[in-house]
Amino acid sequence: MNNILSILIFLPILASLPILFFKKENEKLIKGYALIVTLITFVASLFLYFSFNIASGDYQFVEKFQWIQVFNTFYYVGVDGISLLLIVLSTFMMPLCIIASWNTVQKNLKNYYFLLLILLGGLIGVFCSLDLVLFYVFWEFILIPMYFLIGIWGGENRIYATVKFFLYTMFGSVLLLVGIVWLGILCIPYLGMFSTDLTQLSSVSANLPVDIQTYLFILFTLSFLIKVPLFPFHTWLPDAHVQAPTAGSVVLAALLLKMGTYGLIRFSLNLFPAGFVTLTPYIATLAVIGIVYGALLSIVQKDMKKLVAYSSVSHLGFIVLGTFALTQEAMQGSVIQMINHGLSTGALFMIVGMIYERRHTKEIAKFGGVMKVMPVFSVIFMIVVFSSIGLPGLNGFIGEFLVLIGSFNSVNLGSNWYVIISTTAVILSAVYLLWMFQRVMLGPLDKEENKSMKDISKMELASIIPILVFIVWIGVSPNTFLKVSENSVKKVLENFEQTKQRMSAGILK
Q1: Residue 181 located in a structural domain
Q2: pLDDT band with cut points at 50, 70 and 90 for residue 1
Q3: What is the pTM for the complete model shown?
Q4: Which of 146, 248, 387, 507 yields a CA-CA distance of 20 to 30 A from 119?
Q5: Nearest CA to 132 among 193, 178, 188?
Q6: DSSP string, 67-105
Q7: Which domain holds residue 456?
């Protein structure tokens, strides 16, 4: 258990290498091997989960040793309750992505599964890095497999979508790198040395002047908001989703976007609390605009995949709003909503992929009455839609309810209007998702091409049933997961309150 995090990071990365030496004709061997590796990684993450002490808000399973001596940089990893949930989500979703790709990806199988495995290792690295340089390395590393997954196995306009995704993310990464170097230099007088150790930096960065904290906060946060993505940095997302293969869309929505929201909590809030306070009204305003704007754009979409992509902009706005509300309820809501969005939107992209494989179109107008020939599929589709809407009893309700209640009582936001306006998007989400379901699944089966569509297969059921289990589980018994992150969230908020008191007393200027 002393090296469980290193095992989780490097197991899928190292295990991906043998795939390159398999004969390309051995398709079943390639697929089976990739699935076994991801399942072993998931089992290892369960050991991590059940060994985690939820009574502590500190980092656990810590590994630390010198990496780059000249820069005083460490290989430093550890998890708290927030990062633990995201790691388990990553290891849970990746085997399902491989099952979802089983019969849909036909070309360059070796490279495809190789990229999925190293992507998993990189994601785990992002969520447990406690050194800023190490975090940056994994942050950038993830760009490589995602770039090729969209660029090689994507749709007709995949090159445009890939380049756009790459340029947006690289711009944010440059800002992040500048912020890391600047922060390390500024903290030399406090620490007596250049450091990128998160725990060391967080103990002294709160002492920096408010204006310096604000500048650094902007550098870090812009990078994270581009990755979320928050309005107006969202324009790369619909293109990337529409062009990506099904597994690529699932990974992008369920896991990669959480890197941005996780970065806000772990780094922006932890390192620059004074900057967080100063710019909260502006970021919260962008979050509310994104919530409503994403919902309105979803209503007018004709393509199912683009509709789900714009719905992500809206749902992730709730997570950002809850983060900046800085109350226990809202922050807990944001953390659990990261998991909920990963499950619900990941499932929606799987569902769209299943329909696309049968009709080779994602245009809503091309369907109608599909429930008559796909009854089992339609029930699953309906449950996932209700989950994404936030129906009580399913996972989406828990996250949105906590975010809205916690934000309504937030002193940091300073106004109830953020919540009042955001609540309209809950109604709008029912409009666009139920409208999509009605147009696709209900009505007359009057198009000849739809009459021959087959119901959901066993392999497709295997990829989506586990998600349905957690959709219901979180909705019925949310405390199973909320208690994991509770003390970690409390510790984050306690550190923030100390800085806020110092600002109020005029000690920090």
Answers
A1: no
A2: low
A3: 0.92
A4: 387
A5: 178
A6: EEGGGTEEEEEEE-HHHHHHHHHHHHHHHHHHHHTTTT-
A7: 277-501
